[in-house]
Amino acid sequence: MTDFDFLIIGSGIAGASAGAALAKRARVAIFEREPVHAYHTTGRSAAMWTALYGNDVIRALTVASRPFYDHPPSGFAEHPLLTPRPGVYFAGRANLASLDGIDDGAAELGIVTRRLDAAEIEQTCPLFRPGLLGGGLVEPNSADIDVNALHQGYLRLAKAAGADIRTDAEVVALEQGPAGWNVRLADDQRVTARVIVDAAGAWADTVAAMAGAHPAGLAPLKRTAFLVEAPAGLETRGWPSMIEADETFYFKPDSGRLLISPCDETPSAPCDAWAEDIDVAECVERLQAWVDLPVRRIIRSWAGLRTFAPDRTPVIGYDGAIANFFWLAGQGGYGVQTAPAAGRLAAALAMGDPAPADITALGLKTERLAPGRAYVDVTH
Q1: Strands 325-329, 190-198: pairing kind
Q2: Measured in whole angstroms, how far is the alpha carbon of residue 42 from the centre of its chain?
Q3: Using 50, 70 and 90 to split pLDDT, how confident is the model at 178?
Q4: Strands 28-31 and 164-166, how do they pair?
Q5: What is the pLDDT of residues 82-122, one digit of tens each?
Q6: Backbone φ and ψ of 144, nearest 5°
Q7: Which residues make Cβ contacts (< 8 Å) with residue 272, sequence separation at least 6?
Q8: Residue 174's closest CA among 150, 142, 209, 141?
Q9: Band of the pLDDT at 380, cuts 50, 70, 90?
Q10: Which residue segments constitute the domains of the chain, with CATH numbers given?
Q11: Residues 144-166: b if buried by 16+ CB within 10 A, e if exposed
């Protein structure tokens, strides 16, 4: 008998959420190469739940995830997973047309939006320089996500269901045998598994190569973020997330400070990403062209990798050429907000079950996620 039914490689939010669902029905292991969970991407996410992000597949997974966020299982977390924070997309007079496509298809998924004029935005966030704003769009039901509480809750669920969860467990060789996959770790430990689940994030194509699978063309893109002091004399806690309509930057309150990102997407090899001073400096310049916010020092900066397939849609499903190799990768910047639905969907497909009805009811077709699909290369 094999050691495990499913060996999940990667303990980020994708592996943890799918592992928690699978462990209720099968013998599951979650192996993480790093000494701590969620080191590279999940742990660096300043995640928001916003159903306006991403393409139609991402939006469907985000909407299907909301019930879990609002009503997680008893004991999943010590406090709510979401903190309400409206999201405002703002545009100048010259680029008001950029707002038109942001809420396309929103009503069909039940996503509430409302147009704002310049005065309403300035009343909400009084930093904007006079005369620049043309208008905006608000998503009143968006929220901040407690990423750590979500991730730890899934790991606890998986462990309570019997999952074997290990850190410092780097998989270095995969070979199929009569009884399943023979797996060798960096410390030369050996285990066997019936199915390999590739949830290795930026390293997912590397894991696939070990298994003899064709790469999915996953591209890690670096995203920078940093913290600055909030403006003196202003109460910022209730401000919305402010997102420039062309996504050249965003800022939002964060524990009494402001979190800012240039929304950069710099191609990167899989690595321990870090923030570049030039990216931070350019973002500050871009920000200050819009708002009156002196930035005297950067309190902290960091970067993480967001890994996309060419069509910016996750890759979830069994490989078409390699038996018992399951992809769970390419979540891009949407892995946290879609995790509850994506984890359930991955577990269902891995077990050979139909996709959950509540997800397909939102128009999601699993062939859009299938490995080996005909990718359409898109830039946004």
Answers
A1: parallel
A2: 7
A3: confident
A4: parallel
A5: 999 999 999 999 999 999 989 888 999 999 999 999 999 99
A6: -80, 145
A7: 39, 40
A8: 209
A9: very low
A10: 4-73+146-217+310-368 (3.50.50.60), 86-141+219-308 (3.30.9.10)
A11: bbbbebbbbbbbbbbbebebbbe
Instruction: For residue 127, report the phi and psi dihedrals to the nearest 5 degrees.
Output: -80, -20
Measured CA to CA in angstroms, residue 85 lies from 235, 253, 280 at distances of 15, 9, 24
Q: How many CB atoms lie within 10 A of CB 301?
A: 18
Burial of 198 (0-12, 13-18, 19+ CB in 10 A): buried
Closest residue by Cα to residue 227 from 148, 124, 297 = 297
Evaluate whether 336 touches 247 at the Cβ level (below 8 Å): no
DSSP secondary structure string, 137-199? EEETT-EEE-HHHHHHHHHHHHHHTT-EEESS--EEEEEEETTEEEEEETTS-EEEEEEEEE-
pLDDT given for residue 43 in this prediction: 64
CA neighbor of 379 nearest in space, from 226, 225, 267, 273: 267
Please report the DSSP string for 248-312 in residue order: S-EEEEETTEEEEE----EE--SS-----HHHHHHHHHHHHTTB--------EEEEEEEEE-TTS
Question: Whose structure tokens read 């298994």?
Answer: 211
Do residues 300 and 226 lie in contact, with contact meaning Cβ atoms separated by under 8 Å?
A: yes
Residue with tokens 């309570």, as numbered in its chain: 160
Assess contact for 150 and 108: CB atoms under 8 A: no
**Backbone φ and ψ of 256, nearest 5°:** 85, 0
The answer to whether the CB of 304 falls within 8 A of the CB of 223 is yes
Q: Are 87 and 52 in contact (CB under 8 A)?
A: yes
Judge contact between 135 and 117, C-beta under 8 A: yes
